[in-house]
Specification:
Blueprint: H1 2-25, E1 28-34, H2 48-60, E2 68-74, H3 82-91, E3 96-100, H4 102-111, E4 117-121, E5 140-144, H5 149-162, E6 168-174, H6 178-191, E7 195-201, H7 206-219, E8 223-226, H8 230-233, H9 236-246, E9 250-252, H10 255-259, E10 264-268, H11 270-285, E11 301-306, H12 307-313, H13 319-324, E12 327-329
Parallel strand pairs: 1-2, 1-3, 3-4, 4-5, 6-7, 6-8, 8-9, 9-10, 11-12
Antiparallel strand pairs: 10-11
């Protein structure tokens, strides 16, 4: 019996290092980099995108604190610091970089061409990140949440239906992106006989939001549209507070604003975008090449209306508009 016990002990001793090595091999580390806002918001209790992202990772077996380490970074709205931040992330050599926004992805791509990048942003072709959505190539794939130009025209049309007398609409965006973004609204605004007023942020920081809203109060438009960029979404609660304080009807590009008390949003399914991003991360962690994974584009859009916000504005929404809403929050 002693000889048998000794032999079993030797077998266990010889296999244990291999088992430990396998266990260690299952550990993965990803870095999530957003352009603005506190890193604490990158969580399963954050915006709709992150809630769906982390839930999908868990469903796939990638669980933070067990076999997955998640490092969180924010550019804090300072575009001039994105390059340095990207180099800092790359130097830590994560298994995958999740880059939120075109500018962050561009910085990450410039800093490295080997670590896989899963990107979420506007137009990857226009941003110079890929040459094909079907076969991105290189070390990048991801999800585009930037809609075609007609979607922005649809948002403006819905806002006009909510406020038929509107003739001057303020458009909130970061100054760097203004010219490219507002182009999607020029023809729709002309057809609807609406003048667009720029609310141009120098950078996505709380102080800048306070500044542009103080300035627009002097101009008094009939409504506000908020661009869908991640830079702005990072401060969705602050934006809603400032919009509601101005007592102006607003159209947003994400339901997160409506859940925070905003009036309405016409949005792509950001939950699906979060799940698709998690799927890409999971595939790459299990050996897939990012350049072989097609970039996902949204196909479903939803109109979400907050009746409580409408009542606070003293705004009576047309029954036809409520009738086409996919969700009405009482």
């Amino acid at each position: 019996m002693r000889r048998r016990d000794f032999t079993i002990g030797l077998l266990l001793a010889s296999t244990t290092p291999s088992a430990w090595a396998q266990e260690r091999a299952k550990q993965h580390r990803i870095a999530i980099v957003r352009p603005a806002g506190p890193v604490a918001l990158i969580s399963d209790t954050g915006i709709h995108f992150y809630r769906a992202f982390f839930a999908e990772l868990r469903r796939l077996g990638d669980i933070e604190g067990q076999n997955l380490t998640v490092e969180r970074y924010s550019g804090e709205g300072r575009t001039d610091r994105f390059a340095d931040l990207a180099r800092e992330v790359v130097d830590r050599k994560p298994d995958v970089i999740v880059a939120i926004g075109d500018a962050i992805a561009q910085a990450a791509r410039a800093a490295n061409d080997t670590i896989p990048i899963v990107w979420g942003g506007a137009d990857p072709i226009r941003a110079g990140l890929v040459t094909s959505l079907a076969r991105p190539g290189g070390n990048i794939t991801g999800v585009t949440v930037r809609e075609e130009s007609e979607i922005w025209g649809k948002r403006l049309q819905i806002l006009k239906e909510a406020v038929p007398s509107a003739s001057r609409i303020a458009y909130l965006d970061v100054r760097t992106y203004w010219e490219g973004d507002v182009g999607s609204l020029l023809e729709p605004s002309r057809q609807l006989q609406i003048s667009l007023i720029g609310m141009k942020l120098q950078e996505s920081t709380p102080a800048e939001y306070q500044r542009v809203f103080a300035e627009i109060a002097q101009d008094r438009p009939d409504g506000i549209m908020v661009d869908g960029r991640a830079d702005l979404l990072a401060y969705h609660q602050l934006i809603v507070e400032l919009v509601n304080k101005s007592r102006l009807p607003a159209m947003y590009a994400s339901r997160d604003y409506v859940e925070a008390g905003g009036l309405m949003a016409y949005e792509a399914d950001t939950g699906e975008a979060g799940r698709r991003t998690a799927d890409d991360v999971h595939e790459i962690l299990n050996g897939a090449k990012p350049g072989d994974i097609p970039i996902y584009r949204p196909t479903k859009y939803e109109l979400v209306i907050n009746l409580k916000a409408a009542k606070a504005l003293g705004l009576t929404l047309p029954p036809t508009l409520l009738g086409i809403a996919d969700e009405v929050i009482e």
